[in-house]
Design brief:
Low-confidence stretches: 1-6, 181-200
Distance between the termini: 30 Å
Number of domains: 2
Strand content: 35-45%
Radius of gyration: 21 Å
Helix content: 10-25%
Number of helices: 3
Number of strands: 15
């Protein structure tokens, strides 16, 4: 049996439309620690970024939950599921629309877009990040977020935001990949087998 490690992460994304695109907005995957242009290190919310970019960062990874989580979009994870959490947000300096997408390395369970469901899932935000103005998080009327019907690992967004920005939490399934050390050992084993098969003393060609 091949041992494995679990990870679930944001792979990338893009800004494809809206006034954010004409302003040069792009998708940026943040790694902790991050330094917002208008706030303290590792803080998000309350106009800490003020750019036309769409952002995302990974929160807790592959947590075994003991109670079901409610979401506004998709199907919430059930008790006993392994859940990875990610924060996606748009914080422009004036009323701006962004159309874009975010890709993950695992299927999306669902998305918390309301203040209540964001608060209920905050136990997954175990990253050291300071979440400012928590009661103002979520989406407003007209904002759209959905799981791509042709790709369960892609989140589609269409937000119009100003102060304090739009913030959602994306819950994904676990993604299992081989450990690098295990992969290396397997590779060396196969290489050794190849050498052995070619050795004249074994009479193999």
């Amino acid at each position: 049996m091949i041992s494995s490690i679990a990870q679930a992460a944001i792979l990338g994304g893009g800004v494809t439309g809206g006034s954010a695109l004409t302003q040069g907005g792009t998708f940026t995957a943040l790694s902790l620690p991050f330094d917002p242009p208008n706030g303290a290190v590792d803080s998000v919310g309350s106009d800490t970024f003020q750019t036309p970019n769409l952002y995302g960062f990974d929160e807790d990874q592959n947590i075994l939950i003991d109670t079901a989580l409610s979401v506004d979009v998709g199907t919430g994870p059930a008790a006993g599921d392994l859940v990875a959490s990610h924060y996606v947000f748009f914080d422009p300096d004036a009323s701006t629309r962004v159309v874009g997408f975010v890709d993950f390395d695992a299927d999306i369970f669902g998305v918390a877009t309301s203040t209540a469901f964001l608060a209920a899932s905050d136990f997954l935000a175990n990253t050291g990040v300071t979440y400012l103005s928590p009661t103002l998080r979520g989406l407003e009327f007209g904002d759209v977020v959905e799981i791509d019907p042709t790709n369960p690992r892609r989140l589609l967004v269409d937000f119009t935001a100003h102060t304090p920005g739009d913030y959602v939490r994306v819950l994904t399934m676990e993604s299992v990949v081989p450990e690098p050390s295990t992969s290396l050992l397997i590779g060396l084993g196969l290489a050794g087998l190849s050498v052995r098969r070619r050795s004249p003393e074994n009479g193999l060609h």
